[in-house]
Amino acid sequence: MSTAAIKPKGARVVPPDAGPETWACHYLSSTVGSKVLVAVTGLLLVGFVVFHMIGNLKLLFGRDDVNAYAHFLKHGLGPLLWIARGGLLAVFVVHLALAFRLQLRASAARPIGYVYQRSAQATPQSRTMLMTGIVVGLFVLFHLAHFTFGWVHSADIGGGRQSDYLHLLDEQGRHDVYSMVVAGFRTPWLSILYIVAQLVLFCHLSHGIQSTIQSLGLKASRFAPVWSGLGYATAATILIGNVAIVLAVWIGLVPPVFPMVK
Amino acid sequence: MKFTLHVWRQRGPEEAGQMVTYTVDAISPDMSFLEMLDILNEDLIKKGEEPIAFDHDCREGICGSCDMMINGLAHGPERGATTCQLHMRSFHDGDELFVEPWRAGAFPVVKDLVCNRSALDRIIQAGGFISVDTGGTPDGNCLPISKPQVERALDASACIGCGACVAACPNASAMLFLSAKAGHLGSLPQGEVEQQDRVRKMVAQHDREGFGHCTNINECEAACPKEISTEFIAQLNRDYICSAVRSAVKG
Question: Is the ipTM above a cut-off of 0.85?
Answer without folding.
Answer: yes
